[in-house]
Amino acid sequence: MPDLLEVGREAVRKNQWPEAVTALQAAGDRNLSSDDLTLLADALWWAGRPDDAIEVFERAFVSFEREGRYSEAASIGARLAYFALRQLSISVAGGWISRVERVLEGKPESIGHGWLTVIYVAKALMVDHDPDRAISLAEQAIALGRRFGVPGIEALGLSFKGIGLVHAGDWRAGLKMMDEASVVATSVGGDLRAASDVYCNTIAVCRNLGDYRRAGEWTDKADRWMLAHAVGGYSGICQVHRAELKRLRGSWSEAERDARHACIDLERFHIMDGIGYAQYEIGEVRRRMGDFLSAEEAFLKAYEYGHDGQPGLSLLLLDQGQIEEAVKSIAEAVGRPEGVSAASPAADSLSRAHLLPAQVEISIAAGDLETARRCVVELEQTAHLYEGPTWEATSLTCRGSLELAEGQFDEAAVALGRAWRRWQEVGLPYESAQARFLLGQARLKQGKTSAAQLEFRTAASVFGQLGATHDLRRVQQLTGDTTTVRGERVTKIFMFTDIVTSTDLISLIGDAAWENLLHWHDRTLREAISKHGGAEVRHTGDGFFATFEDARSAIDCAVSIQRLLEAHRREHGFAPWVRIGLHLAEATREGGDYSGHGVHAAARVGAIAEREEIVVSTALLSTAGAIPYQVSEPRSVTLKGITEPVDIQSVEWRVLA
What we know:
Blueprint: H1 4-13, H2 17-27, H3 34-46, H4 50-66, H5 70-86, H6 90-104, H7 111-126, H8 131-148, H9 151-168, H10 171-185, H11 192-208, H12 212-228, H13 235-249, H14 252-268, H15 272-288, H16 292-304, H17 312-319, H18 323-335, H19 345-365, H20 369-386, H21 389-406, H22 409-426, H23 429-446, H24 449-466, H25 469-479, E1 488-500, H26 503-509, H27 511-531, E2 535-539, E3 544-548, H28 551-572, E4 577-590, E5 593-595, H29 597-608, E6 614-617, H30 618-621, E7 629-631, E8 635-637, E9 646-656
């Protein structure tokens, strides 16, 4: 019989997390030492079971303390304090900090003191917003990490000091230190969790500084590192960064998919601040696509999880024609930048810089050119201070917008001509198209009609390719030209799900419980769609519209959804009844949305289904190959609005073939 403890330990050394969990749990609690409990907790974490991991970490803390191994106990307690900080459970974090301080009181300096100092630094940055104190504490952590030879402590100290330096205004030194931290974190003997956090810190700071090239490089490296180490714990945060970069580079469907995947991971790991950023990215994609209802929903969820939803919420109000409300909204946001205090003027300046372009646009729409002028001057100062091409392109676009509104058409054309080229060099197509649309208006005012039309056509083409329907309509309203809409023809598998409402169920459990149940329904279906390789197109209110690349994955997803709902109904007494339709068809893709006869037919296939039924078109089923489910005989149906009959079959998801 194999030595289960040694099998589990070896699996941890090889980053084989599920295998490690199985072996260590099979060895039995009585046979697990304090060190083995720590290994089991780590394995549970990286295997995607954070709640179980935290419970085992707590047991390890008690075990180490009982044995008089106070440094090890403190290290575990500091880790639990950090988890609580990331969950926005500040009181719980404070409780663990106090407990670690008690354990270390009167003890010689040790590795435990190093990890406690790291938590002090994190609290100074995340809770107190005190960069000067964070820098001082980070220097102590770096020294302790080097003294005791612990790369994780040193790397986090370097990373947090880098953040503090950026907040204090010395961004060049801060970035240099964060680059070093990322190298130290992944050195021999490094800590997986520390490396994950350091990567995240580095990417976030690059993003805040507008250095998207550098952010992209570190995101790619972090992805490769996580894949190599089978790290599943903090990947959700990296997905948020990846989603933002993809959105900026014009891959909106992929950006939304990554952001939704991130929400699932982050919610599972209770990293609540990260969920807010992920929801914000979903909102930005939806707003740019002209799906204002879904955008508002995502922005409000972002706010719920600690992100203020700005500038997206303000721009959404502007897009909807609510100019006065947009003015109030952006003014309030600029007046209190997210997560920043007066103790950090440089961070305050950066946070404002991310909001000011929206205030320029909104102020011009409201006719308040004085406010727009002040914002432009501040943005130009930011561009001079941080020297990045992104800030230069931003300030040029805003300067050109202001000059256009002021009637300085020649000056506006010069600024906007430089702006769109800089955006193009940075690789941000949407922003470049926006600048060209403004340039077209300046050319029109100059009397250069042909040049203006060329800019309008170019902008419209990019907006059409991206799926920026609202911006495309603005161009078309100005030019009267509707020939610029060119969607891509694709063949996809379309899924429509829909709740078959039960009035009796709602009256039985009450409105509040029903709302909670709907939230669970949405989360469950999104997880199933993501797990089976699907892409959510949109939330339809009572269900989802999603796409898949292959028939087998789509059918497996539909079956999984029905079985999850049935299991919830069996265990808890109730769950929504859902019908699902699947259809293979050709459609027109514009950005992240689909339209045309094929989508209409797919929706009608879904509408035919009864509650708990999965209806698939025979055309789709013929491409799925052998599937492990029984299916009904084909039947021909006439779909509303569809000329030709469609053959459909039902998948008997409760019965295996």
